[in-house]
Specification:
Layout (H helix, E strand, L loop, with lengths): L1 E4 H7 L16 H11 L5 H14 L3 E5 L7 H11 L5 H14 L3 E3 L11 E3 L7 E6 L3 E4 L2 E4 L3 E4 L4 H7 L6 E5 L1 H7 L4 H5 L9 E3 L12 H9 L3 E4 H6 L9 E4 L4 E2 L1 H9 L3 E3 L7 E6 L4 E6 L32 E4 L2 E4 L11 H9 L1
Parallel strand pairs: 2-3, 9-11, 9-12, 12-14, 13-15, 14-18
Antiparallel strand pairs: 1-2, 4-5, 5-8, 6-7, 10-16, 15-16, 17-18
Length: 362
């Protein structure tokens, strides 16, 4: 085995990272996502390597490299599962990861395809007064001859600490449900390939897209911003397989969770304090098969009958508001077990301090 001072590689490649120490900032959501699914054997360890190496670079850790595959102790995997279920705080969990990287118990494959230059940041000045907004080099694609980011990232600004104090939450106070099933349904070919008449009903069974970015339909911006502000996240899978977990939290925040199971629908609608932050939530019923990691549309969104809209016949469906993405006149409507926003806030969630304060104060 070998050791390498990653900081020297960082300087060699002239990659610019925020000067904020890792311990003083929040962990990017993509790292949470990748470690979560690695621990549950949904993605291979090679997909988790970038997360570990990113942490090592951020902390200037001299990591241990091996010629074979990456080696992570079973205890770390078990700790990751505990962290997933809220049994281990973010701080405690990531301290364990850092300790494993420092003492060499976590050994990284020298054949890792991780390229630190792919994570070079291109910042977008003036995009948000609240958060530093940027994209990684690897996430740029060419659209109409010009480079455009397919996935945005956010980080805390050093000059907004007083504002953050008013917006931050205790991670045990609230839980945010990441719309993993909805993200998967929108992946092409999939549910919408069928809805356009370009595929048979075989497209109504879709592989769960564990590792892919959430994108617009998956409330990507909200997930990242709320994560920075201390909100704990869980996915549709977590709620479907353990619905009672929602009762551990004072409030539940539902994003664009358009496609959910009956179990998930029941757990959300029975919780006494829910914020429906995106319209069009709880719109269509799916079943999940965790043996082959698929979801299948059962009812809703004009299926199996053209006249069917909401798959649960949910009387509080507010899908009519989903096309208002400007949110110039946003407000919340009270319902029996919570409140609903009247617009699709994906483009304002990282700029509107009043909206973030309303979420925190609910």
């Amino acid at each position: 085995m070998r050791s390498i001072a990653i900081v020297s590689v960082l300087l060699l490649l002239c990659v610019t990272f925020s000067s904020t120490a890792f311990a003083e900032t929040k962990v990017p959501y993509w790292i949470i996502q990748d470690l979560r699914w690695w621990a549950n054997d949904k993605i291979p360890v090679t997909r988790a390597e970038p997360a570990l190496l990113w942490i090592g670079v951020k902390e200037n850790i001299k990591m241990t490299l091996v010629d074979g595959p990456t080696q992570i102790p079973l205890s770390i995997k078990n700790d990751t599962k505990k962290w997933n279920f809220g049994e281990l705080s973010d701080a405690d969990f990531f301290n364990k990861i850092k300790s494993g990287l420092k003492d060499g118990s976590i050994k990284i494959s020298s054949k890792s395809k991780f390229n630190i230059n792919d994570y070079k940041e291109r910042e977008f000045s003036g995009f948000s007064p609240l958060f530093r907004t940027f994209a990684y080099k690897k996430d740029f694609v060419t659209v109409n001859g010009e480079l455009a980011p397919r996935d945005m990232q956010f980080d805390l600004r050093s000059n907004q600490s007083e504002t953050y104090k008013k917006l931050m939450v205790n991670e045990k106070d609230a839980i945010v449900i990441a719309p993993l099933f909805t993200k998967s349904a929108y992946d092409e070919p999939g549910f919408y390939t069928y809805h356009r008449g370009e595929c048979s009903t075989k497209c109504l069974t879709k592989k769960i897209q564990y590792a892919n970015p959430y994108g617009y339909s998956g409330s990507s911006n909200a997930l990242k911003v709320l994560n920075l502000l201390g909100y704990k996240t869980i996915t549709d899978v977590g709620v479907d397989t353990n619905p009672t977990i929602l009762s551990k939290y004072k409030k539940v925040i539902v994003l664009h969770n358009e496609y959910v199971t009956q179990t998930e629908f029941d757990a959300i609608t029975k919780h006494p304090h829910v914020m429906f932050l995106y319209p069009n939530a709880l719109y269509a019923k799916v079943t999940a098969n965790y043996q082959n990691d698929t979801i299948t549309l059962i009812r809703g969104h004009n299926y199996p009958d053209k006249e069917i809209r909401n798959g649960f016949n949910w009387k509080l469906d507010n899908s009519k508001f989903e096309y208002d993405s400007a949110c110039k006149n946003w407000n919340f409507t009270k319902i029996k077990n919570g409140k609903m926003l009247n617009c699709f806030p994906e483009h304002i969630i990282f700029t509107d301090v009043n909206l973030l304060k309303a979420i925190k104060d609910y």
